[in-house]
Design brief:
The strands form two sheets. Strands 3, 4, 5, 6, 7, 8, 9, 10 and 11 form a nine-stranded mixed β-sheet that branches. Strands 1-2 form a two-stranded antiparallel ribbon. It contains eleven helices and eleven strands. The chain is of the alpha+beta class. The protein folds into two domains: 142 residues, no CATH class; 187 residues. Helix 1 runs antiparallel to helix 2 and helix 2 runs antiparallel to helix 6.
């Protein structure tokens, strides 16, 4: 199937050919790398936040590459790109990948010997002058997948970062980060929390902090609600600043949602005004800071909690120059409501030969 014939019906978004897997992977890989560069260049993150952000982005890229290898020659299963305002693989794809790799030892023992497969390929190509069957290519891809992909690097529903000393001039003494893939909207989020600790040794409650974050801050919600939940469950810490980055939607030819930016790009791809690989990435940053304190509970169970200021919401759009021009023409109200003018990133060039 030619790359020029990519079709994703409105009611589904299956990647069903080698060309589509390669094409989609290149798009996501390119867009996320451009995002990392822009986050630093346009001061969307501090230096330390950017280090954590890149680590989570690398896990996401690693997982999508693993999906590409797993599905490329599989005639029975197809990878699904989410249809909601996402543009990323459906969350279940990450779940399937993680569960599948937990059984990798069972599969590895059943795989054909690599040298035997190599000899068969050489014989087919050089002596018989025939194309290698898809079933055999799938076997080869399975060998690469099960022998090289590590389960611990798959982007899971919740990924916890370490607690470290916060950089100088931060809002608090310590900071930590975490990332989650929200099942409802099928988008990845990266979060940071700056906090003070009232005890003597932070090591004694690290496990407790990680557990509370996993159970309280693992989905999209109002940021002040998240902050209050964390504060109430951790009596020895005082959160001072929480920041959340929402990655997406990723607007591209595979996305079929109600978002105006997605529709503008899809229509102009269909009209051949812009190329098939045209894309844009929306990004939202929400922050909340603590103000004064208040007490909650009775005399014997009183707890001092933070009173949170009004959350700050900022929206951004990253896109190549031609797409920025297009969006100003087709969706001016969105462009004019951004926290700053659209951030220009590089054009993606994919050969369609």
């Amino acid at each position: 199937m030619s790359i020029n014939h990519i079709v994703t019906p409105l009611d589904s978004a299956y990647l069903d050919s080698k060309d589509q897997y390669v094409f989609y992977h290149k798009m996501v890989d390119f867009a996320l790398k451009e995002l990392i560069v822009s986050a630093q260049r346009d001061n969307l993150c501090t230096h330390q936040e950017l280090i954590f952000f890149k680590q989570y982005a690398d896990l996401l890229l690693y997982s999508i590459e693993a999906m590409r290898v797993k599905y490329m020659y599989d005639e029975e299963e197809n990878m699904k790109v989410d249809l909601t305002e996402s543009g990323f693989p459906n969350y279940l794809e990450f779940r399937y990948l993680f569960n599948d790799l937990s059984l990798k030892e069972n599969y590895v023992n059943k795989l054909k010997d690599v040298s035997e497969l190599q000899e068969e390929f050489l014989d087919t190509l050089l002596r018989k002058k025939e194309a290698i069957k898809k079933s055999r290519l799938f076997q080869a891809a399975s060998i690469v997948y099960y022998t090289s992909v590590e389960q611990k690097f798959i982007f899971n529903r919740f990924v916890q970062g370490k607690i470290i000393k916060a950089p100088e001039n931060s809002a608090a003494e310590f900071m930590t980060s975490w990332s989650f893939f929200d099942v409802g909207c099928n988008r990845p989020f990266v979060c940071y929390m700056y906090f003070d600790f009232e005890g003597t040794n932070i090591e004694t409650i690290k496990t407790q902090i990680y557990e509370v974050l996993k159970n309280t801050a693992d989905r999209e919600m109002n940021l002040d609600v998240m902050a209050y939940g964390i504060d109430r469950k951790l009596k020895d810490i005082k959160p001072k600043h929480i920041k959340r980055i929402d990655l997406g939607p990723f607007h591209n030819v595979f996305a079929k949602d109600e978002n105006q930016i997605t529709h503008a790009i899809l229509k102009n791809i269909a009209d051949k005004v812009v190329p098939l690989e045209s894309y844009a990435l929306s990004l939202s940053i929400d922050e909340v800071f603590s103000g004064s304190e208040f007490s909650e509970g009775g005399y014997f169970s009183k707890q001092i909690l933070q009173k949170w200021k009004e959350p700050i919401h900022q929206s951004f759009v990253l896109a190549p120059h031609r797409i920025i021009q297009l969006l100003y023409s087709k969706t001016p109200e969105i462009m004019n409501s951004l926290a700053k003018p659209p951030i220009q990133i590089a054009d993606l060039k994919i050969s369609k030969v």
